[in-house]
Each structure stands twice: as C-alpha cells, then as structure tokens.
Design a protein that fits this description.
alpha/beta; Rossmann fold; 2 domains; six-stranded mixed β-sheet; 10 strands; binds adenosine-5'-triphosphate; binds magnesium ion
C-alpha cells in the first residue's frame, strides 16, 4: 500500500520547548492509523505539526506525493489534509448549517458546497434534523459528528481526528468510530486517529503507533498491539 502521509524524523515543539523528537510514521491510502499515548505524550502536537500550525524543526512531511514540510495551515486544507480538533471546536452561536458551510471555505470546496451538504446530511441524518439549531446546543456526540461533517465539507483526502471519543458515553463512542470506518470504506478516505482511549483506537485501526515522550515506542497491527502485554499493562490497565 502506498502512503498518503509520510512523517520522516520529525522534531517540533513550542518556542524553545522541544516536544516531538525524531518521530516517523506513515498512513497508507484508505488506511485508518491510530496514534495512542498518555496525556502530554505529544499526540496533539503531532497533528498540529502535520497540518502546518506548528513549525517543523527537523525532518520532513510528505503528503499525497508532495513535500508539505513548510506548507502553511490554510493551504494544507486545500491539499486535502484536514484536522478535527479536540472537542470539535464548532462555533456555538452559529447554526449547524452555518458551521457546515464554513467547512467549505476554500474555492474548490465552495464550488461543490450544495452537493457536499446533501452528502453529509445523508451520512449524518441527525444533522439534517438539527440544521437550524445552534451548534452550542448539540449533545457531545452530535457535536463530534457535526465537527467530522464540517471537515468532510472541505473534501479531505486525510482526516486527522484529535480524541474524538473524549467525554462521550461508550455507546456514542462506538457510533462515532463506526461512522469513521464507514467514511473510509465509502469515500476512500484515509484517517489518522489520535486517542487516549487505547482499546477503542487500536480496535478500529489497521495499524497503530504508541507514542511516549514525543517519540514512537512501538508500532504494529492494531490487533497485535491490543494483545501486547506491555501495551495492556501500561495503557489499558490490564
Ligand atoms: N501551546 C503550548 N505551549 C507550550 N507547551 C505546550 C503547548 N501545548 C502543549 N504543550 C506541551 O507539549 C507536550 C505535549 O502536549 P500535547 O498536547 O501534544 O499532548 P497530548 O498527547 O495531546 O496530550 P493529551 O492526551 O492530554 O491531549 C506537553 O508537555 C505539553 O505541556
Ligand atoms: Mg491532545
């Protein structure tokens, strides 16, 4: 499987503070890859660095055949690299529909906005029912769906999800992950999923990476990592 995203020996951080050090990973076309690790391990920093919000200090990023190491964040979206931040970050005083429309802000997506709207409303019927409701009034699960739908409005090739299960009841978590799996199957998307919820994230992915102190500790097929005694002991409380 060829890679849609290649992170090669990446180092980055905040100001003088180094966080990621010599980190390499890749995501194949149509693949779901999970990155799991504890609080402060560097998961969000990784996503911010990939999509251009943080400067890459060393190493390189390749996306869809192009070098994107220095690509600014607003251009990353146009290339099809889209991040759904933790908690979704919807605009609470705007309606569901307005939030979705904002997802299609770049010219290519704008031209297809009506088709995309119809499509995401079909994928997430609850959003069609709530289209005129303020986003701030959505439940946690609905908010996460709306945030994923908003990302879909920008026609991504790679969707990067930061802790989509955070704060959701287990049954809603299952639903969100089901949704993500079906998007991958029907739309040919690739997904980079970042989670503290290690069990769920490793079950849903093809391959996973364990991140610790800004570096990769272990990688393998999701199934194998789930059965790994070290992973079970350190990250799953087993
Ligand atoms: N804006 C910032 N400025 C300075 N340091 C930061 C900033 N954001 C994060 N850090 C530091 O970078 C390190 C990695 O943080 P990061 O947010 O990437 O962790 P994480 O794996 O996403 O954790 P969590 O599971 O809690 O979301 C931490 O030590 C954190 O304190
Ligand atoms: Mg985080």
């Amino acid at each position: 499987m060829s890679a849609i995203l290649q992170v090669d020996k990446l180092s980055s951080g905040y100001g003088e503070l180094p966080v990621l050090d010599d980190l390499s990973l890749e995501v194949g076309h149509g693949e779901i890859v999970s990155v799991v690790g504890a609080n402060g391990a560097g998961k969000t920093t990784l996503l911010l660095s990939i999509c251009g919000h943080l400067k890459v200090r060393l190493g390189s990023l390749k996306f869809d055949g192009q070098d994107i190491t220095k690509l600014p964040a607003h251009e990353a979206t146009e290339h099809g690299l889209v991040m759904v931040p933790e908690g979704g970050r919807l605009f609470p005083f705007m309606t569901v529909l307005e939030n979705l429309e904002l997802g299609a802000y770049h010219p290519k997506a704008r031209g297809r906005m009506n088709e995309s709207l119809e499509e995401v409303m079909g994928l997430f019927p609850i959003l069609a029912d709530r289209r005129e409701q303020l986003a701030g009034r959505l439940s946690g699960g609905e908010r996460q769906m709306c945030a994923i739908a908003r990302a879909m409005m920008s026609m991504p090739k790679l969707l990067m999800l930061d802790e989509p299960s955070l704060g959701l009841a287990p049954i809603i978590v299952d639903k969100v992950f089901e949704m993500v799996t079906s998007l991958v199957k029907t739309k040919g998307l690739s997904v980079l999923l970042v989670e503290q919820n290690v069990g769920n994230a490793l079950r849903v992915c093809e391959r996973g990476y364990i991140i610790e102190h800004g570096g990769i500790l272990k990688t393998g097929r999701g199934k194998d990592l789930l059965n790994d005694p070290v992973v079970q002991r350190s990250y799953m409380g087993l």
